[in-house]
Design a protein that fits this description.
This protein has 440 residues and is of the alpha/beta class. The protein folds into three domains: 87 residues, Rossmann fold (3-Layer(aba) Sandwich), CATH 3.40.50; 181 residues, UDP-N-acetylmuramoyl-L-alanine:D-glutamate ligase; 142 residues, Protein-Tyrosine Phosphatase, Chain A. It is built from 16 helices and 18 strands. The strands form three sheets. A seven-stranded mixed beta sheet has the order 16-15-14-17-13-12-18, with helices on both faces. A six-stranded parallel beta sheet has the order 7-8-6-9-10-11, with helices on both faces. α6 packs antiparallel against α11 and α12 packs parallel to α13. The longest helix is centred in the middle third of the chain and has 17 residues. It starts with 8 loop residues before the first strand and ends in a 6-residue tail after the last strand.
């Protein structure tokens, strides 16, 4: 056995993924410890003590990390942190949770999906299609189900569909999916990666370890930037010119992601026939909570909750998909890039007004007003509640109030889901609210 397979497993970062790694290690009789950079809440300390797990908090120390036989990083932990790099130099193997999990499961087909936007809905669509063809498919990863939490239940004939982020790919230079899918690339997470070039490099780890019998699925426009590995190339934007019946009802970016999903399923299933894809079930995969979700009507104004929009590219896609005149709510914590392009996308007759809010509001106002000419009316308010009130005041019957923040939620909320529910709750409290017809 190599060093990683004996001795202490030290989990770096105690989030959802970190806990799942701890539980797996304990089930298999491994010695496990936790190193956490932040101060742990009392409930987390109790959870660790009840399981007899030693831990450090408030920072990673060399003495603690060097006692490990392997470090398993939670997704939010950069492998370039000085204590992690020092442990690696000390001879401690450093693995992502994805790599660690795959070492402990059976050999089975791995489909991995990455991209700036659309990952969650695409992996859900792939899972639905594979199941409709009689295969057992597990949808895991960045979607909120750690791979390690299901690894003991896998069989060799199963298919793993992994949503994998740039953070996880940065941690996993040796990751080897049999089918890799890159949906799109736009500036995002630059506070972690430092530059678009390094962000693209992290995404490239999806293909770097592929062999000649593997498949790399990506848009034609990115073929030069993503020439890593030896996988057979499929350009999904050129595949499936005719979508399955019902596919044309999806929004344009959803149709693109559907083509990527179909290409992945065709690569995985020898007898695949897109004509037999159950589009009613697959279309539901593109209706994830807080992703262009109809949230009712207030005094004749259609409300769309796109809280899952956490970067400029996703907001651009949302704005382009709204047909009626729109008032757009944007704000939160800035991702630091892409907002000039968003300003250009918002500068169109269909956008009646823009309401900026949150920590990023003043900086976004400076970016947007610097674009000459910006004909759309611009307003800047403090928080989400004020943005909703201002947006409803500006919108007219027949308009759409589009909540597509283009920023992370961390200035005021735990995650995009908590932000999305806060938005929906305030909308439901409006005097003129009623449930509107679902989007078809």
């Amino acid at each position: 056995m190599d060093r990683a397979e004996r001795g202490r497993v030290t989990v770096v970062g105690l989030g959802l993924t970190g806990r799942a790694v701890c539980e797996h290690a304990l089930r298999h009789g491994r010695d496990v410890a936790v190193s956490e950079a932040q101060s742990l809440p009392a409930s987390a300390e109790t959870w660790l003590r009840d399981r007899g797990i030693p831990f450090e908090q408030g920072g990673h120390t060399a003495a603690f990390l060097h006692r490990a036989s392997v470090l398993v990083l939670s997704p939010g932990v950069s492998p370039e942190l000085p204590p992690i790099a020092a442990a690696r130099r000390h001879g401690v193997p450093v693995l992502s949770e994805i790599e660690y999990a795959l070492r402990h499961g059976p050999e089975c087909t791995v489909i991995a999906v990455t991209g700036t936007n659309g990952k969650s809905s695409t992996v859900c669509a792939i899972g639905e299609i594979l199941r409709s063809f009689g295969r057992r498919a597990w949808v895991v990863g960045n979607i909120g189900v750690p791979l390690i939490s299901v690894i003991d239940e896998l069989a060799s004939e199963d298919l793993l569909v992994i949503e994998i982020s740039s953070y996880q790919l940065e941690q996993s230079p040796g990751f080897h999916p049999h089918i890799g899918v890159l949906l799109n690339v736009a500036p995002d997470h630059l506070h972690r990666h430092g530059s678009l070039k390094r962000y693209v490099r992290a995404k490239g780890n999806l293909f770097a370890s592929q062999r000649g019998d593997d498949v790399a699925i990506l848009p034609r426009a990115w073929e030069t930037a993503f020439d890593q590995g030896r996988g057979r190339r499929i350009y999904f934007d050129e595949a499936f010119p005719t979508l399955p019946s019902g596919g044309d009802a999806l929004l344009p970016h959803e149709q693109a992601n559907l083509r990527a999903a179909l290409a992945a399923c065709q690569a995985a299933l020898p007898a695949f026939d897109s004509a037999h894809v159950p589009m009613e079930r697959v279309a539901a995969a593109f209706r994830l909570p807080y992703r262009m979700q109809d949230a009712g009507v207030v005094d004749g104004v259609r409300i769309v909750n796109d809280s899952k929009s956490t970067n400029a590219a996703s907001a651009i896609a949302a704005v382009r998909s709204v047909g009626s005149p729109a008032v757009v709510l944007i704000g939160g914590r800035s991702k630091g890039a892409g907002y000039e392009a968003l300003a250009d996308a918002l500068d169109r007759p269909a956008v009646r007004s823009i309401v900026l809010f949150g920590e990023a509001g003043p900086a976004l106002e400076a970016v947007f007003t610097a674009r000459a000419p910006l004909r759309t009316r611009l307003h800047c308010v403090a928080g989400l509640s004020e943005a909703i009130n201002m947006g409803l005041e500006l919108a007219r019957p027949g308009d759409t109030l589009l909540f597509s923040p283009a920023c992370s939620s961390f200035d005021a909320f735990r995650d995009f889901a908590q932000r999305g529910e806060a938005f929906a709750a305030q909308i439901r409290r409006q005097p003129g609210f009623h449930e509107g017809p679902a989007r078809t």
